[in-house]
Each structure stands twice: as structure tokens, then as C-alpha cells.
Amino acid sequence: MAIYFDEVTQQFHLQAGQTSYVIQVHKGAYLIHRYFGRRLLNPKIEQPLITVDRAFSPNPDPLDDTFSLDTVPLEYPVFGSSDFRLPAFEAELHDGSSIVDLRYKTYRIFSGKPKLDGLPATYVEHENEAQTLEIDLLDETLQLTVTLRYTAFLSHSIIARSVSVANCGQHDVKLKRVLSAVCDFPNGSYNILHLPGAHAREREVSVLPVGRMAQLLESRRGASSHQQNPFFALVSPNTTEDSGEIFAFSFVYSGNFLMGVDPDQYGMIRAMVGINPFGFAWQLKPGETFHAPEALLGYSQQGLGSMSRDFHRLFRTRLVRGTFRDQVRPVLINNWEATYFTFDQETLLDLGRSASKLGIELFVLDDGWFGHRDNDRSSLGDWKIDFRKLPEGLQSLEKGLRDQNLKFGIWVEPEMVSPDSDLYREHPDWCLHVGDRSRSLGRHQLVLDFSRSDVQEAILDQLTHLLQSAPIQYVKWDMNRHMTEVGSVAWPKDQQSEVGHRYILGLYHVLEELTKQFPSVLFESCSGGGGRFDPGMLYYMPQVWTSDNTDAIGRLFIQFGTSLLYPSISMGAHVSAVPNHQVGRITPIDTRGLVAMMGNLGYELDVRNLSSHDRDRVNEQVLFYKSIQRLVLFGDLYRLRHPNTQKDAAWMYVGVDQREAIATYVQILAQGNPPMDRLMLRGLDPIIQYEVSLIVHDLQYSIPENVLHVAAFGDELMNVGLVIPYLLGDFRACAWTLKAR
Ligand code: DGJ
Q: Judging by DSSP bridges, how do beta strands 282-284 and 173-185 pair with one another?
């Protein structure tokens, strides 16, 4: 069993993997947070909640001046009745007041995990994989019920939380803040680890101490964003890959979010996750229910590596859905950096011909195939072939590629409209806008109003036609600007603050319908690279274009940051030309290949113009990748050296049965006369003997046979390590394959 209720202590004890989470009903009314951490053996905490009288902390119970909501850890705090910290919930009521008093009412415990209406969420395939606890809190006066939902997964140290608010009263309630999870940590010293960034610099790892004031990370951009990922962790000081206690928070949502901490006067740290209350409100009419998205709370007592692997497994197997969840993905060629907007059918077929000879399996036609799009100033919204470029249409192009043994995929940006488009000329009110105010452009485009069902249906219609028009097996779904003038003519004035969230619900609806209709299409989500790399999008599209930055060294940082939470199988990673188009750096083809093999390998360069040296290498790369692909996509990731040192980076994948592994090392800057360096491997079986083969190219010296091929036990490889060959030159890389003897 994963969830217990103890009548005597009125405690709920949730056990998920290696973690316990304990909630207590206090005085029959207040939901107190008692514990989150290492799994407890005893299903209840014997010691009672101790409360003491504190100055300036008022008492909701006139008979107990030791009890204040201000000084106890709470499960779902509301402002206004003695707790002064940032709340989980806030509403504006019909009489102008905002006092809501949520008291414990009842609970339910059941097997499995219910679906969340219209929202992405983790799931179970069998009822016995998890148990769920629902706790109802009630405001008697308003007849407002808030249901807190907790799912404890048996084999993950992760608890999924979500919240529903049901208005069973007589009056409208304007919801202003409905966070999905709040968790009060009694005390202790933590750092915050989060993933800030920018376009082409996504998910940098930032660690800073929790101070004595609120530290919030959020998006106000209408998308989860490049700037902050909806993830953070509280980590004990000196946490490493292998050690340290971690409390991780991930939000299964793709729009504006708020996360972070609000430490109080006694060192208690309130962590929170939810839809960003900034610019948000929701008019909840009598009889209606509002659902807040899912938050995931993960726990690790063995450092970042084990936290990542737990989330990787959960996301890979119980968040991602559909045909491609358990399938290896085709190695692709994307024409974007090879041609940008300038191509015709012959160029594409030529590119395909060269790609196919290299073993590449899928051809992706990127931006520029529709309307009259010769640059980024037109045609978004008109998802019809540009016959100037492709006079014989998509079918013929697809046939030409199929003849070369290539599958065919296509790029779309369905949430956007160009002012220079038929769609916009016909429906100028279909974009987000506010009255006659000017409409800010981003990349010369406007955002379609996905809060409107007619817009959702029209776009679904266009996409359905497109996907039926030719055997399209892959779709790259892009989104290249953030939201401004967020308003909609479809909603009355008192519901304008719902538009941001309704947009995301509309987007989810379109994605649900489309992926249901085309289950054998592989969808890759993209937002100017990794601007919407979040669990919400992963629920619909199993892989994401990680970043527009395709430079191998830049990618080390981006992919390492991304890998903290997201599995390799969710990352799109391409080999591109040098000098790199984003940073101008020149890196060896082998390094570009090995770095792109940290995810779904693809190529994004003009393979027609490769030197014969590079062509041979790419050929080998594709073959090599196919031989390790299952390890990379379904194995366990161990980050061995973080590129943050600016010196080098190393990582490895170990197969689930520990009989196979692949380790990769990248030298960032070369040193003169470097010390002999050894790489300590991880995750191996200490008593298995492995055949280790070094793969390294273009060395200026020959490597002795006893370095090229080694036979050693896992124990030795993890503790004595492997000698890293001397790599002459910046940005050089090598790899080792390991096979049980
Ligand atoms: C941004 C994407 O991230 C790129 O890969 C490319 O598809 C362009 N958009 C096309 O406009």
C-alpha cells in the first residue's frame, strides 16, 4: 500500500518510492504539512504537532493562543486568517471581500490515478502502479470546495499533486490564485537550483542559496519560456551528482507559471508551484469547477543523478504517450540550416539523395514551403503549398524522398499568423489583441487566439488536410514569439484575465485531437528551439527541439541543463555546419556527432557539400548511433563531468540490465602538458567484467592497444577509472563502448 490514514493521529502517510509525505488534520479543521523526505518506516509520526504562542501571529481559534496559521507548516494556505506568507489560493468574492476559510471536510483513497480534465498529466497503465488521495477542503459560507489530489507512485520517489475548485454556492467566485502545490519545509539550509536561460542559451544551471526573502522564478510570456524552465529544486549544500538531499518541483504546464520559495521569520521555507497569478483570474460560476495543472514533487537522497534518472523514467514511460513512447526515433536531416528559405524541389531531393547515402532515415522540410514565404515576414496561417517552390506538391516530393528510402516530415507553426496572410486578411480578429490598440509584432508575426474554439477548429482543419495530403510521418510544431496584448474578442470583459490560460487549454485541445487522429506521426515540439521544453508539451509530443543553438560546445551546457529533468529521448540534437551559424565556432565533426548523440540524432547542414573526410565520418556516426541508440534513449544517464568547469564534459548511458554502456568525453579547452586524467564511470555492475573499446579519431599519435581495448570489472572502472587519451586541440572528443564479457 502507498497511502495510509491513521484515525488516531489523523495523519495521511504517502509513500512513493524512497520518499514519505505526511499530512495531518489538526483540530479537525486545518491541514498541516508534517513531513516530506526520506521514506519513513512507521506509517505515522508519533510526536504531536507542537505549537507555541508567538507575538504578532494571530490565532484563528480563540481558545488556543498557541495556534496560528502563521507559524505552522501548511498544505494549502490561504491569506487573511492569520497566515501572512505567500498563499496557495486567493479569490475575490461577490461582496468585495477576499477572505476564504478552507477547512478539512473529508478524504478518499483509491488505487490508480485519475485523468486531469483537458490537462496533460502523468498517468498509470495499471491501477497498482500508484495510489491517490483526495482531500476536500470546504469554505462553509461560500460552499466552495477545494480538492487536493496526491498520487504516490510505487516505483518513483515522486508525488503528483493537482487541485480542483468547485463552486457549489450561489455566487460567482473570482479565482485569482490557484497554485497546484505548496510545501512548507520546517527549517534547514538549502540552495535553489533552477534553469534560467535565453534563446539559444536555454536551461543554464544556476544554484543560489535560499535567502531570507521570497525568491520566485516565473514566466509572464505566455509560454513556459527559454528564460525560466518550470522546474526548480531545493538542494542541500554541497549536493553533487551522487550525494545530497534534493526536493524537486516540476510543473506539467506550458504557459505562465510561478515557482519558488518564501522563507519566513522562523526559517521555514514555503516552496510553491502553480499557474502564475500575475495577469490571471478565473470567473467561477455556481456549478462550475476549475482544474489547476499537475505539479510533481520529487525526492532524492542520493544527489542530482538519481533525481534526474527518476524523472527521466517517469517522463519517458508515464508522461509521454503514443506510438513513439517506446520506439527508437529515425535519424533525420532537416533542411533549415542547409537552405533556410531558399529551396526548390530539386534542391530538396538532392539533399535527400546525399542524406540517404549516409544512412539518414527521415527528411524534414522546415520553414518556407507554404504561402509565399521567402522570408519570415509572411504566410503563417496559410498552410498551403507554395507551388513556386514545389510545383508538383508534397505528394511528389514525398514520393521522390521515399524512392530514396527516406521518410518525410514537415514543419508548421500553427499558433501564429502573419499580418501578410490570407488568414489574417479574412480574420483580423483571430489574433490575441485588445480593442484598437496596436498589436506588437514578434518575428513579424501575431499570435492566434487559441482561447477561441472557432480558431482551434479552423487550425485543426487546416492541419488535418495537410497531414492527409501526403504520407507525412513527422511534424515539427514551432512557436516563435511570446504573447503581448493578451485579450480576446471571444470573451466578455470580466473574463479577459482567463485568456492566457484558456489559450493553453485550447492548444492542449488541438494537440490532443491531432495526435489522436494521427497516432503514427512523430511530433517534435519547438519554440525557437527549447522555449517550451516542458512536461506539458511532452505529454503530446514525445520530443523537443532542444535549442536553436547547434554549436556542439554550446549544446554541452544546454543538454546538461536539460538533462537534469528531461530524458535524452525527449531531446532533438543535430550536427550542423562549421563555422557554426549561431556562435561561429569551429568544432570537429566527431565532436559534433558525439554531442548530438546525447539525444535524438539529426543532421542540419548541407550534406551535399561535405568533404570526403566528413562524409565518411557521418556515415560511421549514423551506423554507430544506431548501435547505441537504445542505450541512449532508454538507458540510465550518468553525468560524469559538468561542462560548467569550462574544461571538459563527460557522461554515460548504462543499459537497464547493466550489461552495456557508452561513455563520452569532450575536452573543451586543451591544456599544454596536461596531467594524466582518468574518468570515473558510474552505474555499472561492480562484479561484471566489461570489454571496453575506445573510439577516437584523427589523433596525431597512435594509441597503445592496452588503452584502445581494456577488459575490467565495473568496480575498477568506477573507482580506478579509465585513462582519458591525450586529445590534442580544443573541442576534441572520444567515447568508450562497454559490453559485459
Ligand atoms: C525556429 C526553429 O527553432 C528553427 O529550428 C527553425 O525551424 C525556424 N524556427 C524556422 O523558422
A: antiparallel
Distance of CA 194 to the CA centre of its chain: 13
Question: Cell 529515425 sits at which residue?
Answer: 330
| Longest pairwise C-alpha distance within the chain | 85
Q: Pick the catalytic residue: 478, 534, 551, 590?
A: 478
CB 466 within 8 A of CB 513: no
Nearest CA to ligand 1 atom 10: 367
Q: Is 478 a catalytic residue?
A: yes
548 lines ligand 1 (CB under 6 A): yes
Omega of the bond prior to 196 within 30 degrees of 0, cis? no
* Residue 622, amino acid: V
Q: Is residue 412 lining ligand 1, measured as CB closer than 6 Å?
A: no
Q: Is the CB of 368 under 6 A from ligand 1?
A: no
* 606 catalytically annotated: no
Supply the DSSP symbol for 431: B
Mutate to test the pocket of ligand 1, among 365, 412, 526, 603 (most ligand atoms within 8 A of CB): 526
Pick the atom of ligand 1 nearest to 528's CA: 3
Amino acid in the structure at residue 322: G
- Among residues 184, 310, 534, 548, the one annotated as catalytic is 548
What span, in angstroms and rounded, lies between the C-alpha atoms of 15 and 153? 8
Residue 337 cell numbers, joined: 540550416
Beta bridge partners of 330: none
Task: Output the nine-digit C-alpha cell for 738.
Answer: 562497454
Radius of gyration from C-alpha coordinates of the chain = 27
Of 295, 291, 284, 280, nearest in space to 501 by CA: 280
Q: If the chain, 741 residues long, is cut into consecutive pieces of 10 residues, what is the mean pLDDT of each piece?
A: 93 98 98 98 94 97 96 97 96 97 98 97 98 98 98 98 98 98 94 98 98 97 98 97 98 98 97 98 98 98 98 98 97 98 98 98 98 98 97 98 98 98 98 98 98 98 98 98 98 98 98 98 98 98 98 98 98 98 98 98 98 98 98 98 96 97 97 94 98 92 87 98 94 98 96
514: helix, coil or strand?
helix
Q: Does the Cβ of 367 fall within 6 Å of ligand 1?
A: yes
Q: Distance of CA 193 to CAs 229, 239, 555, 564, 584, Å?
A: 11, 10, 20, 10, 30
CA of 543: how far to CAs of 226, 537, 564, in Å? 16, 9, 16
* Strand partners for 36: 21
Give the residue, out of 478, 558, 574, with the most ligand 1 atoms within 8 A of its beta carbon, to mutate for a pocket test.
Answer: 478
- H helical segments located in 388-488: 393-403, 422-426, 453-469
How far, in Å, CA of 311 to CA of 292, rounded? 21
Give the H or E element holding residue 268. Answer: none
Q: What is the pTM of this model?
A: 0.98
In the chain, % helix, strand, coil (3-state, to 5) comes to 20, 30, 45
